[in-house]
Amino acid sequence: MKRKIADKRVVRRAGILMCAASLFLLAACREDMHNQPKFIPLRENEFYADGRSARPTVEGTIARGQLQDDPLLYTGKVDGKEADQLPFAMTDKDMARGRERFNIFCSPCHSQLGDGNGMIVQRGFKKPPSYYDPRLVKAPVGHFFNVMTNGWGAMADYSAQVPVADRWRIAAYIRALQLSQTAKSGDVPAGQQIASQPPQEHGGKVVIRVESPAAENSEAK
Known about the structure:
Blueprint: H1 2-34, H2 71-75, E1 77-78, E2 81-82, H3 92-110, H4 119-122, H5 134-138, H6 141-150, H7 164-182, E3 194-195, E4 200-202, E5 205-207, E6 210-211, H8 213-220
Antiparallel strand pairs: 1-2, 3-6, 4-5
């Protein structure tokens, strides 16, 4: 009987020792994870001569997705001059996207008509020039991309809010607004409709009334 009790005590003690050993092992593992051999950003490090843990990037390194190997697409310029061409073909879907982005980001100042009489201008903010100003009508389309990318005068840049492709879509839509008022009937292909009145804003939407060239010619007779 006494021998059985002694055996139980031995087993119990062995179990306690195993649990204690397991706790020590777990504690050691946790300690190792807390003290990893790594550099802490902006913390002093004596391994390098300059004492900095953060190392400068290798010369010529380009971050993933930031190659920007197309000057026209990313700067709106060719040979250092604002380009009067688009970096990709504009579809109806692109133009619709451009109008949507224009109404969101540009119309508060420039208005949906592009005449510079946006809502915050009506509340006292400095009025931007109309897109129908002769200077802007003659400006290359790359100029509008450049302004959105880098800002101009009182206008801050929108490079953080509007992606590159959308900036081009907005620029193309601005050009379309200009052409709706400055183009001549002879510039329109036969059978296509042309604007008969300046664009007007109704219910938050721009409305352009159109008529066919054929009807215009018949009235002229």
